[in-house]
Amino acid sequence: MKFIAIFFLLALSFVPAHAAEKTSEAIAVRWYEAFDRHQPEMLDHLLADEWQDIPSPPNTPPGPLGARQTMVGL
Asked: What would the 3-class secondary structure string for 33-55 be?
């Protein structure tokens, strides 16, 4: 019985990392899709308000607005 409980707990410990990896992968795919499709509005769903482009292009505002302006300029 202890073996089953330990196995179950170990199995659960791997779920968040795997889920986070899939989430990160999905975000990266959508990031490149936004640039490929030239749809800056897609970035609004991907970037947090606190997101920073480091280094950002000169004269661009911080956050998602700067990323959108950069995409439009490309």
From this structure: HHHHHCCHHHHHHCCCCCCCCCC
